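User: I'll paste a sequence; please echo it back and then give the predicted structure.

Assistant: Echoing your sequence first, then the prediction.
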Amino acid sequence: MKRLILPALAALSLSACETPQPMAYQPVAGPRAVGYFEQRIEPGRYRINFHGAPGAPRAQVEDYALRRAADLALADGYDWFRVYERAVSWDRAGEGPRVGLSVGGMSFGRRSAVGGGVGTAFNLGGGPALTATLEVTMGKGPRPPGPDVYDARGVRESVGARI
């Protein structure tokens, strides 16, 4: 019996470890999942978010958000898009080791029970998870000049080749 306790405790400790998520260009599947989501503000105007994997480079997360803007523009029949606002935020909630301790008890008339547990978790993801947010407007025809105006097809081709 004593031989089983140590391996069981080791297995429980390791099962609590977080595994890093790979970067993927996909719709977000949950509150802390990797992927994109957008909100249509009005025709031709969107707020786009891309939530990256823990430790993903900022440039990569921003590129994925630009790719989503290009895909939306082309899907809606537009040729270009302008980024009016951009921001990057990070989620540090998963960083660092965590230890939890719990104790509980219950009475059943003449009998009572007491139980306890200890758990650990370590973030193996490599750092905070970044979220890039873009607010974009879209247009048709020749692309107007400006550093924040992007050709939708060009972005899809160049960023798509890196994804």
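The first strand starts at residue 35 and ends at 42. The longest helix spans residues 58-75.
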